UniProtKB/TrEMBL annotation, chain B:
Keywords of the record: Periplasm, Signal
Protein name: Spermidine/putrescine ABC transporter substrate-binding protein
Pfam families: SBP_bac_8 (PF13416)
Keyword Signal: yes
Keyword set includes Signal: yes
Superkingdom, natural source: Bacteria
Residues in the signal sequence: 1-32
SUPFAM superfamilies (alphabetical): Periplasmic binding protein-like II
Automatic annotation (TrEMBL), chain C:
Keywords assigned: Cell membrane, Membrane, Transmembrane, Transmembrane helix, Transport
Species annotation: Jiella endophytica
Name assigned to this protein: ABC transporter permease
PANTHER family, per database record: INNER MEMBRANE ABC TRANSPORTER PERMEASE PROTEIN YDCU-RELATED (PTHR42929:SF1), INNER MEMBRANE ABC TRANSPORTER PERMEASE PROTEIN YDCU-RELATED-RELATED (PTHR42929)
InterPro entries per UniProt: MetI-like, MetI-like_sf
Entry keyword Plastid: no
TrEMBL record, chain D:
Record's keyword annotation contains Transmembrane helix: yes
Residue ranges of every copy of the ABC transmembrane type-1 domain listed in the record: 67-254
Keywords for this protein: Cell membrane, Membrane, Transmembrane, Transmembrane helix, Transport
Organism: Jiella endophytica
Transmembrane segments: 12-36, 71-95, 107-126, 138-162, 183-204, 238-261
Name of the molecule in the record: ABC transporter permease
GO cellular component: plasma membrane
GO annotation, biological process: transmembrane transport
Topology in the lipid bilayer: Multi-pass membrane protein
Localisation: Cell membrane
Record-linked InterPro entries: Bact_Polyamine_Transport, MetI-like, MetI-like_sf
Length: 389, 381, 309, 267
């Protein structure tokens, strides 16, 4: 499969006489293939304003050749606008976008060797599956016979039966449409594929399946994928790198592990999942939390140089019920008031003053203490992460 | 269709359902109110505010008048069942006597009340006036008022009155005038005039050869016409210089232009023609009471109202067309006309022009001629 | 994946129809409700539209120059019309030809405006639409007469041109000006369905196509035109049908340089005193128009066009 | 360079649209001019201006009556067509029922019908029924054409209406009447409002149907026509202009009210 794709891909490229512009942009395929650091797309200080609203605020980012980069962020964080600028559907208000070193700020979408898979998929409803897939080839002037051959191949690639070639695209199921949209994007043979939450409308099971397929396709084709989603879970499954956006800014970029394990600030930490976050202030060389019933002195893994304030993040699975106050570096006393089953694990909510702490344990563990009475909970310093407040 | 061939069934069905759809009183419900209601079907002029508004105020009545520009349509409206709507109908000379009365579409007027008015009219209308009476002369069928000659209208700056009168209907046979004349749309009167252009007397039976001549003439006349239109269009086109003359016009059509400061526009009656030597045609309107089962009592009142010298003068100079009226025989009425007004209606030559005209009559083969003419009209493009 | 459950296109469409807005739950209840809501209007239309048309048909088979509807049956009216000596076919030809030209001209005139309303004018769109819809509320006679005043010798155009030593063109009282009048009168009837059609083309499809490297012409031909076609078809049908029945333009502007079929129908009812002939002509016009309307409408999915989904 | 092209073509579209819009109002302006001419026949430049014809038009009893008739017809047409159209639109777009597709298409047929022919057909029908044409019958005639238009206008609004809201209201214990009053009608209000405007104005400006079906009664367009054909005076363009101004005022007022209501709701 992999081999077939590459070969076909090359023939199609030559047959179509494509990539003049794309390659002229400075890319020399093959050359420097061993240097993963070469950015395909580079953003420097890119901003986008609509009237008095700043959708994208001073973003700088390198997108590496062949990587699967996912931008995550809540809705309204500016990720779609960022993607549209990359695809050439919007022009940045400030800053530069370069493609392999060439400035492409004003290059329209159709001249860029990139391709966007829309959230709505934007399949042409009046065309068959085959004609949809052939559309980019037709735009390039590929002959009808060649188009069809290529379309059938792409159908195979996205795991759709060839019989779908003549099918009305509106009669396809959600997952099938997804595949058609993908096949169409590959038909364009872009260097970079952009995805604007294309899986958001699908049911959970199908979504999971397609996420994995997308990841496989990425590997098979070796293309650069830039994907946006509001679901970190989706991002974690597929991505090589993840960028987290908030209010137009890119707050952290890193591998999925880094994003999960070393969030740089409270926002990322909270976005990543249910966590305990405690605000702390530096007072006479010691970190104090004001959020518990009375100020508690905490032992932290490392000091934040120069910072007066910080947030401590403790994942629920690192919190423990303590038999005695000496069992952990940091200890809080509280009262259990809720207990949820999460399948293989159980989550407890423990109230300490105004604060609620989350503790997760695997079902096999037994909670010390009984009933709803007073409990001691705590964590070790090395299990906590200190981030910017 | 066999299920539907009973008109009465339909009536009940339709009336009931329409009442459901539009819950409004239908005229049937308004029978009682006819004392204060008058409906007039007429030529333009009687439907003007100047004539009707004083009557409305005087009687406190609702007066509706609809003007049409040809006789057959009005009469057909009565035939189609509207004789229940209208109280008065105002059409030209032959129709009351020859068509409407025999078809029982109108009813006679009380002679003792209305005959005396004729005494005060211009001499030619003195009783018993032919077109106002039934064929046997026993019944008075209507009242006369406006009249006039009509043949064609020319811009005398372009074609002198003398040339126009002497050339007569042959003006429309003159190829050099093609594209410079208009035709005032009035199908029945157009028929008369095309007969005349063809050199035929319209008001008699015609042989097939004569009908052929009519057809050829119709084709030629319509092909050569720059435009066909209504009175306002003709006058506007004359004044703007789009055309130099137009067929089927007379004092009635050109008088508003003359009154508006264009005395060079003039109705012409030819000196000679195929109707026993006469070339002109004249019309006289006869207003009759419709054979309406619920005839409004205001109908005779209105007929008397328009005989009043002041009102007759208003009728003569109602908006739209200005015409001589029979009541000008009464000095009280005549004195109301200013010099400008007399000029507008070409009073100076009215008598001689009427003398050169025949009073129009029914064309025996009208329907055939009309079909031929309509065919010709369509081929003008 | 549900591939296996997908059947032929027709069953799928049916399925989608049922799924519309989760209506399926209420389907059993709403089936009579829809019919109930429709019944007053249907009853009214049966009496106000269908019955008059049947009456016209009845008259068309009545004795010429009579009022004996549903009482006599004859084909003479039609025989007369189809008699080659009768030139009424010319009126039909002119009406249909001018209607066709009107449609063609309006397609070209309205397309940029409709495009502008959907994609260019932005917040000005509603104002521009109102400007174009408003003339519908002014009686067409008044507007057409205004053109006469504009074009006539010593009219507005001529008078203005005289100011710079020129004279106005001699355009009145011709078939061309009749066509012009029809284009003018029926412009809104093309513009609005067309705008509706163009607004059915999702913006992201255009963007997607552009992203795939399609040029303007290709986008227009492959995406915009086919997707906007239902609206364009409605506009074309509406203007054609209305123009085919038009009469005022030929009378007021055209000086009857051509006779339209509606004029002939009208004449039959007036000067000719021949209602049955007029009815027969009307029936023939109805056959042309009704046939065309039915044929085009059968191809349209009104839910999609009006509901935009 | 590539970006300037859409801008240039947008400019062309603006220019073309404005050109066509000006052309649309040109004859209306010419008519207004003619109404201000002292002379009966129109020559441009106008020799003498005068408000005489406007004055005469305003003074005329007959025109007062015609205006009243026109308003009355338009009002009744508006009310009846709203009632029929409202339910018709529900049947058109809200409910799924057997025969809906056919109903949708049949309903549009009167719009796709030349009005002179429709007017004559109605005249024949009324004649066959023995009903005298009057302004009552003109109402019926107007309705035949306007009800489908109003239905369509409201239906477009109904399409955007989620029936789940009615279901939710019913689930929360609202009765049929309360649902209609508190849920359905307020949501459909913009469609009903524009339907009402359309109904009134289309009736106000209609000529071909009134010509054949109003009998002895006259409406403004019918009066204008009959005076144009015979008895032309500048009262014709004067009344035409007044009627246009009245329609424009109504449209503007309608728009302003709609805007006001919208603004109030948004708050």
């Amino acid at each position: 499969m992999n081999m077939t794709w590459t070969e076909q891909s090359e023939t199609a490229r030559m047959g179509a006489g494509q990539s003049e512009t794309a390659r002229a942009g400075g890319g020399r395929p093959g050359e420097g293939a061993d240097r993963p650091a070469l950015p395909v797309l580079q953003l420097v200080g890119v901003s986008k304003r609509f009237d008095d609203f700043t959708a994208v605020d001073d973003i700088s980012l390198d997108i590496r050749e062949g990587e699967f980069l996912t931008i995550v962020g809540p809705s309204g964080s500016g990720k779609t606008t960022l993607l549209r600028m990359l695809a050439g559907l919007e022009q940045p208000s400030e800053g530069n976008i370069t493609l392999r070193g060439t400035l492409i700020n004003d290059l329209p979408a159709r001249r860029r060797p990139t391709c966007l898979v829309f959230q709505s998929l934007a399949l042409f409803p009046h065309m068959t599956v085959g004609r949809n897939i052939e559309f980019p080839l037709k735009a390039k002037g590929v002959s009808a016979a060649e188009r069809k051959a290529r379309a059938l191949e792409l159908l195979r690639m996205v795991r759709l039966p060839e019989a779908y070639y003549g099918k009305n695209v509106m009669t396809c199921s959600g997952g099938e449409r997804q595949r058609v949209a993908l096949a169409r994007a590959f038909a364009y043979d872009p260097d970079v594929l952009f995805f604007d939450e294309p899986l958001s409308a699908l049911d959970y099971k199908l979504k999971k399946l397609l996420e994995k397929e997308l990841k496989d396709l990425h590997k098979e084709t070796g293309k650069t994928f830039v994907y946006i989603t509001h679901s970190l879970e989706e991002a974690m499954v597929m991505s090589d790198r993840i960028g987290v956006m908030r209010a137009g800014k890119l707050v952290q970029v890193g591998s999925p592990d880094a994003i999960y394990g070393q969030p740089q600030n409270r926002f990322v930490a909270e976005f990543v999942g249910e966590v305990n976050v405690i605000g702390v202030t530096l007072s006479n060389g010691a970190w104090l939390s004001q959020e518990t019933a009375e100020p508690v002195r905490l032992v932290l893994p490392q000091t934040m140089a120069g910072a007066e304030r910080a947030a401590v993040v403790i994942r629920p699975e690192y919190m423990k019920f303590l038999a005695a106050p000496g069992d952990a570096d940091n200890v809080v006393s509280g009262r259990v008031y809720n207990e949820y089953s999460l399948g293989s694990r159980i989550q407890y909510q423990v109230r300490a003053g105004e604060r609620v702490f989350l503790i997760e344990m695997s079902r096999s563990q037994i909670r010390p203490g009984t009933g709803d009475g007073e409990v001691l909970i705590g964590w070790n310093a090395e299990d906590a992460i200190v981030v910017e407040a | 269709m066999t299920n539907f061939n009973r008109r009465d069934t339909l009536k009940i069905l339709g009336a009931g359902a329409l009442a459901a759809g539009a819950p409004l009183g239908f005229p049937g419900a308004a029978l009682a109110a006819r004392e204060k209601e008058l409906n007039i079907l007429c030529w333009e002029g009687y439907n003007s505010a100047q004539v009707l508004d004083p009557f409305r105020e005087k009687e406190g009545a609702t007066v509706k008048a609809e003007s049409l520009t040809n006789d057959p349509t009005m009469i057909n409206r009565l035939r189609s069942g509207e004789s229940k709507v209208w109280d008065l109908i105002n059409v030209n000379n032959p129709w009351a006597r020859k068509i409407m009365y025999p078809e029982k579409l109108i009813k006679p007027l009380p002679k003792d009340e209305f005959m005396p008015y004729f005494d005060k009219m211009l001499e030619q209308f003195h009783p018993p006036y032919k077109w106002a009476m039934s064929d046997d002369g026993s019944e008075l069928l209507g009242m006369t008022q406006r009249f006039g000659p009509y043949s064609y209208v020319v811009n005398t700056d372009k074609i002198s009155r003398k040339t126009a009168e002497e050339t007569g209907w042959d003006l429309f046979n003159d190829e050099s005038l093609a594209g410079k004349y208009g035709i005032l749309e009035s199908d029945d009167w157009n028929v008369f005039n095309i007969f005349l252009v063809a050199g035929l007397d319209p008001f008699k039976e015609h042989s097939p050869e004569e009908m052929k001549a009519f057809e050829d003439t119709a084709l030629k006349v319509f092909k050569g016409a720059k435009l066909i239109g209504d009175i306002a269009t003709m006058n506007q086109a004359l004044i703007s210089g789009e055309i130099d003359l137009h067929m089927t016009g007379g004092t009635y059509s050109v008088s508003p232009a003359r009154a508006d400061g264009f005395p060079e526009m003039r109705a012409i009656t030819p000196l000679k023609g195929p109707m026993n030597g006469k070339g002109g045609v004249s019309w006289i309107e006869v207003t009759s009471t419709v054979n309406n089962p619920e005839l409004s009592p205001l109908a005779p009142e209105f007929l008397k109202y328009v005989q009043d010298p002041e009102v007759a003068h208003t009728v003569a100079f109602a908006e739209g067309t200005f015409n001589p009226v029979a009541q000008m025989g009464n000095k009280a009425c005549f004195d109301l006309f200013t010099k400008d007004e007399l000029d507008a209606i070409q009073w100076d030559s009215l008598e001689e022009e009427m003398a050169r005209s025949v009073e129009y009559d029914i064309v025996p083969d009208y329907e055939k001629a009309l079909d031929l003419m309509n065919n010709a009209k369509r081929q003008r493009s | 994946m549900s591939d296996a459950t997908l059947g032929t296109s027709s069953t799928v469409r049916e399925k989608q129809g049922k799924e519309r807005q989760g209506r399926s739950a209420l389907r059993h209840l709403s089936l009579p409700a829809g019919a109930r809501c429709a019944s007053p209007i249907l009853l009214f239309m049966a009496l106000g539209f269908l019955a008059p048309l049947l009456t016209v048909i009845g008259f068309a088979f009545a004795e010429p120059r009579s009022f004996a509807v549903f009482e006599s049956f004859t084909l003479r009216n039609f025989a007369e019309i189809f008699n080659p000596a009768d030139t009424v076919w010319m009126s039909f030809a002119w009406s249909l030809a001018l209607a066709l030209l009107t449609v063609a001209a309006l397609l070209l005139i309205c397309y940029p405006i409709a495009y502008g309303l959907v994609r260019v004018f932005g917040r000005w769109s509603s104002l521009v639409s109102i400007a174009f819809v408003f003339p519908l509320f002014i009686s067409e006679n008044v507007r057409l007469y205004g053109w006469t005043l504009f074009f006539i010798n010593h009219g507005v155009l001529d008078g203005l041109l005289a100011g710079i030593g020129l004279s106005g063109p001699n355009v009145l009282f011709t078939p061309e000006i009749t066509l012009f009048g029809m284009i003018y009168t029926y412009l809104p009837f093309m513009l609005f369905p067309m705008t509706l059609g163009l607004s059915m083309v999702p913006g992201d499809l255009i963007e997607a196509a552009r992203d795939f490297g399609a040029g303007r012409l290709m986008i227009w031909r492959e995406i915009e035109l086919p997707l906007a076609m239902p609206g364009i078809l409605i506009g074309a049908l509406l203007t054609f049908v209305l123009a085919a029945g038009a009469v005022a333009e030929a009378k007021i502007l055209g000086g009857q340089s051509v006779i339209m079929i509606s004029h002939d129908i009208e004449n039959a009812f007036t000067y000719s005193q021949n209602w049955p002939r007029g009815a027969a002509l009307a029936v023939l016009l109805m056959i042309v128009i009704g046939g065309l309307s039915m044929a085009v409408m059968a191809r349209l999915d009104l839910d999609r066009i009006l509901g935009r989904r | 360079m590539d970006r300037s092209r859409p801008r240039r073509s947008h400019l062309m579209i603006w220019i073309w649209t404005i050109f066509v819009a000006v052309a649309i109002y040109l004859p209306v302006a010419c008519g207004a001019l003619a109404g201000l001419s002292k002379g009966r026949y129109f020559l441009f430049p106008i020799r003498a201006y005068s408000f005489e014809w406007w004055q005469k038009t305003l003074d005329s009893l007959e025109i007062q009556r015609i205006v009243q008739t026109s308003i009355l017809i338009a009002l009744i047409v508006t009310v009846v067509s709203l009632v029929l159209g409202f339910f018709g639109a529900l049947a058109f777009a809200r409910f799924d029922w057997r025969g809906r597709r056919l109903y949708q298409k049949l309903l549009l047929l009167p719009i796709f019908f030349p009005q002179p022919v429709l007017g004559l057909a109605l005249l024949l029908w009324f004649n066959t029924l023995g009903i005298q044409p009057s302004w009552h019958t003109a109402i019926v005639a107007h309705l035949v054409w306007i009800v489908p238009v109003v239905t369509l206008v409201i239906a477009i609004q109904v399409y955007g209406f989620d029936p789940a809201m009615e279901e939710a209201a019913a689930d929360l214990g609202a009765g049929r009447w309360m649902i209609l009053r508190d849920v359905t009608l307020p949501i459909l209000w913009p469609g009903i409002w524009s339907g009402a405007l359309f109904a009134f104005l289309l009736s106000w400006g209609n000529f071909p149907l009134s010509l054949y079906t109003a009998g002895a009664d006259s409406t403004i367009p019918k009066w204008l026509y009959s005076k144009m054909v015979a008895g032309y005076t500048p009262m014709v363009p004067a009344l035409g202009t007044m009627s246009t101004l009245a329609a424009a005022t109504l449209l503007l007022a309608g728009g302003a009210i709609a805007g006001f209501v919208k603004a109030r709701r948004a708050r």
